[in-house]
Amino acid sequence: MRRLIWRAATLVEVRAETATARTLVLDVPGWPGHLAGQHLDVRLTADDGYSAQRSYSLAAPADGERIELTVELVDDGEVSPYLTEVIEVGDQVEVRGPVGGWFVWRPESRAPVLLVAGGSGIVPLMAMIRARRLAGSRTPFRLLYSLRDPGRRYYAAELRRPEPGLDITYLYTRTTPEDWPRKAGRVMLGDLAESGWPADFEPDCYVCGPTGFVEVAADLLLDLGHAPEHVRTERFGPSGG
Questions:
Q1: Which residue range forms the structural domain that includes residue 155?
Q2: Which of 75, 99, 123 is the C-terminal boundary of a domain?
Q3: What φ, ψ does residue 85 adopt, rounded to 5°?
Q4: Who has the most CB within 10 Å: 19, 26, 29, 43?
Q5: Range 122-137 average pLDDT
Q6: What residues does the FAD-binding FR-type domain cover (predicted)?
């Protein structure tokens, strides 16, 4: 098994995604590459030697020694405030990875794909969408993206561009755009039945988001007849950020 080591990563670009989330583009000499859906650890070390680390999903497929992370600000966090409000181009952090081998999508896969995102859970799923595009894959993708309000959409401009074989459904839990056809509310059985794939298509289903969202969505997929081995989940809960 390959041993993971800490590597110096230099910030080369920053993109705002929402009022509280930023995408960080980092150069990591010696980066071994990764699969769409994997994550890594980020470590910050203060002058007095105190260090803090958090895990973040990779937001884009492998591109040589360049990686992308999208980080949401956690107000009382230790790591996310620095990554979203302080770090500047040219600054360095330490990263270790990639981590994870179950919650991944490979371009050679031919099964239809259903992506179910809750909030910032879109990040590893966006890596899969981008990996599909990069590979020129014709595997059909459907994305159900649940978020509190339209202002919290990550990758808004990119996802507005039409992409053959990618169908996107937005679901808002608190505030909807004007004249939106669905009332604000949490994901329901009908949402997944209407926007997902029939179970007899045997799609690969990837669900990512807060723990409660993931548990509900995964149970609904099982209720719809999807085989447990085709429902892959990645969850996150409250942490120090």
A1: 113-236
A2: 99
A3: -125, -15
A4: 26
A5: 98
A6: 4-105
- Taking residues 84-93, report their average pLDDT: 97
The single residue listed with the structure tokens 């770090």 is 87
Phi, psi of 43 (to 5 degrees): -125, 130
Question: In degrees rounded to 5, what are phi and psi of residue 29?
Answer: -55, 130
Q: Look at the block and give the residue holding tokens 């999903």.
A: 57
Query: Which residue type is seen at 148?
Result: R
Structure tokens at 68: 């992308």
Q: Is 120 left (phi over 0), alpha (psi -120 to 50) or beta?
A: alpha
Report which of 79, 123, 95, 85 is spatially closest to residue 241, judged by C-alpha positions. 79
Total tally of structural domains belonging to the chain: 2
Residue 241 confidence class, pLDDT cut points 50, 70, 90: low
Q: pTM of this prediction?
A: 0.96
Please indicate, yes or no, whether residues 94 and 117 belong to a single structural domain of this protein.
no
